[in-house]
Amino acid sequence: MIAKQRYSSKSELVIDLIRQARKQQVQIDWINSKLDKAEQTGFTQMTKAEIFKESKSRLDG
């Protein structure tokens, strides 16, 4: 990406990757909190791992 001039330096690239990882972690944390709440309220009998596995299989086709 540096060669394609999207980033002017390696540190800029690293900073952007960190920013993206943090954003992704915020989304993961949000999903986990929703799953925890659903498990606690009895909304589902499935565990987080089961929900994740099913969601992933649906996304993969």
Describe this structure in words.
By secondary structure, this protein is mostly helical. It has one domain (10-60). Helix content is 74%, strand content 0%. It has 2 helices and no strands. The radius of gyration is 18 Å and the shape is elongated.
Mean pLDDT, nearest integer? 83
Radius of gyration: 18 Å
Number of strands: 0
Q: What shape does the CA trace take?
A: elongated
Total helices: the number is 2
What is the helical fraction, as a range of percent? over 70%
For the report, how would you describe the main beta sheet?
none
Low-confidence stretches: none
- Report the structural category: mainly alpha
- Please tell me the total number of domains: 1
In whole angstroms, the N-to-C terminal distance is 31 Å
- How much of the polypeptide forms β-strand, as a percent range? under 5%
Order of helices and strands: HH
Question: Features of this protein?
Answer:
single chain; elongated
Short synopsis of the structure:
By secondary structure, the chain is mainly α.
Describe the protein's topology.
Layout lengths: L9 H32 L6 H13 L1
